[in-house]
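By way of example, we now present a protein record of this kind:
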Amino acid sequence: TLEDHHIFPAAYLGKLRGPDGKSYPSDRINCVVNRTLIADKTNKAISKSSPSRYLDEILPAEGASAILNSHYIDAEARSAMQVDDYEAFLYAREHTLIAEMIKRILG
């Protein structure tokens, strides 16, 4: 079964502060750029883990790039995940998603 997954888990982000020193607002945590569908077992295994932690623990090293690419997470976004940089992740993934939408619309 597939579940809606926060790539940077909401519980993890709830403990962090944004660039302005304030807690991340829910609309910034729950934005579409921070969401993807994954298997329910994987979602439960990730739980509240930081991306840097779950990338190493859950993704197989030899297939990690292909798996992440299938979720429109490119090398730049993955690098941000490896150091738990939410702002850099949002920037990189947003650009990947926009480029994919333009590609599909303009064909």
Summary: Residues 46 and 58 are 8 Å apart (CA to CA). The first helix runs from residue 10 to 13. The longest strand covers residues 2-6.
